[in-house]
Amino acid sequence: MDGFVNKFLSVLKVVTDDNKEDVDDKQETDGLKEEKEVQHDVQENGPGKDARGELQLNTAGIREETEPVESSQSGSSSNSSSSILQEDSSCSLLSYCPDEVPTLPKVEQCIDIVPIEDMPLPSPVSQLESSTQSLEPGYTPSLAHSPSRGVLQRDRPPSPSLFDRSIEFFKREFDSIRFSLGTRPVLTHEEWFNIFNADGQMLDTEKFYSFLLDYDWPTELLQEGWKYLFEYYETFSNHDERVLVDKKKDAELENLMSAWSEILEKEDESEENARVKKLIYLINKDVPRTDRDHSFYTSNPENSSVLRDLLVTFCFANPDIGYVQGMNEVLSLFLVTVENKTAAYWGYSNYTLRNKLFFNSTGLMAKLNGVSELLNIHDPELYNKLRVLDCSNMLFCQRWILLGFKRECKTFEMAVKVFTIINSLKPTHYIQLQGLGKCELLSLDMFLVVAILISSRNTLLSFTDQTDVYQWTGKLKLSDMSAISHARQMYDEWANRNW
């Protein structure tokens, strides 16, 4: 509590100083204006002339004379900025080498942060502007849902008052403490139904994602929430359309399951038959030990067979992905949470196809390299320690990414919370990856890895061998939400950076 009070007093002092500077600037501006008015009246006004009109003309003249000066200043500033960017871009990033330990350069020189609008991708601003040409002339596109929220906004909002900033600070700190302790508000049925209209269409998607991030959900509501989160239902669909979706998805799943079942019944020596048998063999090794103590499986052993059949169906329908160990853990999250075979399969399918890049070694290493760069920025000392231990490639964290931190959570319920939160925030800015000619989106799960490492930095700094790191990873259990609270704070800092 003392730390919280000290932190508030320090922030209050900064806010007060900022407010005092604003007042001083305003007084200085008013004084300069009065001085010019008096000087103008003495030098310019004659008898019978309108002093107010002369003052207005003179003020316009002053503005026209001062604008070129400001423009030249901004030009010199931009030239200075461009030279700095050229120096940064000329600096190549270090490539990790296990045989020799290079000297770490300054973080500012080895990290190349690229705003979204500078990436070779369609600009979100241009897309919004082009999509609103047919609307009213006075319509202004909103950038509230842009992944780079706070960066692409063109007009800076007015500075809040000292009182407003203090209240916002208290609210943010209170929410952070409450979130880290796991004491979050519980979503009510009334709050859930209020974001839909009479036809069943979701009217407030922003409120929906706020519920996902900041609320605990009753089981029956979370079953519905995940159907929207993982795009089994469209948010704008109504009651009748969702009934049709259920029927359509049921039929499609039955067709996919029949396809590999019929191949297996032929008992020939075809390649497809051999592929199905191999899938069943691999999956049968993992399914029996998947959440075997959970009541969903202990109360009905047939649910394990459902899990196996859904895994075989997905892998058979997506041969480019195939089966990767750990898929059983993630699909079990869907099956237990949604408690509906069809919705669980299609939700898992959408999630996996969206993240299929990370189910191969190249994509996974790219993401782990992004985590390594983030750790180097937020805690260089810890990064350097892991580099000395030959762990800066972050391979000991790969299970965290692949399974959505499921095994790192102390309970299944916490695993569902964490998985919900890390899939409810869109990735933010790009970061140039070390030794790779590509950029990676910064997603919340990457920040969560960094937050977990920083929360255990004293333990990690005491290690003397790589084996210690891997043994610590195997024993790690998240007992509260403090790490993901820290991860969200880092995410917000990056999302709201002014480039």
β-strand percent reads: under 5%
How many distinct beta strands?
3
Largest sheet: 3 strands, antiparallel
Shape verdict: globular
Q: Summarize the helix and strand pattern as letters.
A: HHHEHHHHHHHHHHHHHHHEEHHHH
User: Averaged pLDDT, please?
Assistant: 73
Question: Which structural category fits the helices and strands?
Answer: mainly alpha
Q: Roughly how many Å is the radius of gyration?
A: 29 Å
Terminal CA distance: 35 Å
List the helices and strands and how they pair.
Layout (H helix, E strand, L loop, with lengths): L1 H42 L7 H40 L16 H4 L2 E2 L9 H8 L30 H19 L8 H5 L11 H10 L4 H11 L9 H28 L4 H16 L8 H4 L3 H16 L9 H12 L2 H14 L6 H18 L1 H9 L9 H5 L9 H11 L7 E3 L6 E3 L2 H12 L1 H5 L4 H10 L6 H14 L4
Antiparallel strand pairs: 1-2, 2-3
Helix pairs in contact: 1-5, 5-22, 9-10, 9-12, 9-14, 10-12, 12-13, 13-14, 15-16, 15-19, 19-22
What does this structure look like?
Mean pLDDT is about 75; it is low at about 45-155 and about 430-440. This protein is about 65% helix and about 0% strand. It is built from 22 helices and 3 strands. Helix 9 crosses helix 14, helix 10 crosses helix 12 and helix 19 packs across helix 22 (about 480-495). It has a 3-stranded antiparallel beta sheet with strand order 1-2-3, covered by helices on one side. By secondary structure, the protein is mainly α. Strand 2 and strand 3 (about 440) form a beta hairpin.
Notable features of this structure?
single chain; three-stranded antiparallel β-sheet; 63% helix; 2% strand; globular; 22 helices; mainly alpha; 499 residues
